[in-house]
Amino acid sequence: MTTEIGGRLKQIRTRAGLSLREVSERCGIAASYLSNLERNGSSPTLATLAKILHALDSDLEELLSSRGASEPTGPVFRRSEMRQASDAGRRYTLVLPVREGVKLEMLDEYLLPGEAEPEFENLSCDVAGLVLSGTLSLEIEGEPASVLCPGDAFYVPDGTRHRGRCLGSEPVHLITAYVPPKY
Fold first, then answer.
1. Which residues constitute the domain of residue 170?
2. SS (H, E, C) 102-119
3. Helices 20-27 and 46-55 sit at what angle, rounded to 10 degrees?
4. pLDDT in tens, 116-126
5. Would you say residue 26 lies in a domain?
6. d(CA 99, CA 73)
C-alpha cells in the first residue's frame, strides 16, 4: 500500500494540536511548503519527511499505519502486511515496524538512479545498513564520499550529518535498521 502522505501528515499534525506555523518553526521548513505537502501538491524527500515527523514527535510507522487495521502480533512479519512509501528518488518497505516488544525498525530500501544530490540528513538515532545490490555513495559531511558495493555495510552514529545516493544506472538495494529516538 502506498500511503497518501499529505493527508496523513495533516492528520498527525491536527491530532498533535499543532499549527502549520508551529511545525514549521520546529523543523525549519516553510509553513507554505508544509501546507502544500498536506494538500498533496508535492512529494517530500525522505530527509524532509524525517524532519517533519521528528517535529511532530512521530515516526514512519504512524505515518504509514492504516486507520482501524488490526495490529499483527508475534514474531513473524508477512510481506503482504508491510507498508510501503516512495518519493522521486527512493522506494522503501517498512519491514519491522515498531510495535509492542519490537524496538528496532528495519527498512528494505531502493535508491533510484538519476536523483539529484540529496540533502544531508541528521537523524537522532544510529543507523546501520547493508548494500544488497547496486553502488551506493555514502557521504559524511566534511569527509570524502565512500563507495559501497554489494556486501558492504555502514554504520552512522546519532547526530552525524550524512547522505546516500545511487551511483550508476541500476538502483541501490539495501537494508537499513535503526532504533527510533522514542526508545
1. 79-178
2. ECCEEEEEEECCCCCCCC
3. 110
4. 777 788 777 88
5. yes
6. 9
